[in-house]
Specification:
By secondary structure, this protein is an all-alpha fold. 56% of the residues lie in helices and 0% in strands. The chain contains 1 helix and no strands.
Length: 54
C-alpha cells in the first residue's frame, strides 16, 4: 500500500554515487568540444572529410 510509505525528515544521498554520475556526464561534456573542433577543421579545409553519410 502506498499509504504505508513514510519519508524521512532529512534527505540523504551517497557521495560516491553522485561522483560516479558526474564523471559519467563529464565524458560527454568533454567530447562535445572535441567533435566540434573536428567539424570546424573540416569546414575550414584543414582536415579532409574521409566519408559522408547520406
Amino acid at each position: 500500500k502506498l499509504s504505508l510509505y513514510q519519508e524521512g525528515d532529512t534527505g540523504s544521498f551517497k557521495p560516491r554515487l553522485l561522483r560516479t554520475t558526474l564523471l559519467d556526464g563529464l565524458v560527454f561534456l568533454v567530447a562535445m568540444p572535441f567533435f566540434e573542433s573536428i567539424d570546424g577543421a573540416q569546414l575550414s579545409g584543414i582536415l579532409p572529410v574521409v566519408f559522408r553519410f547520406p
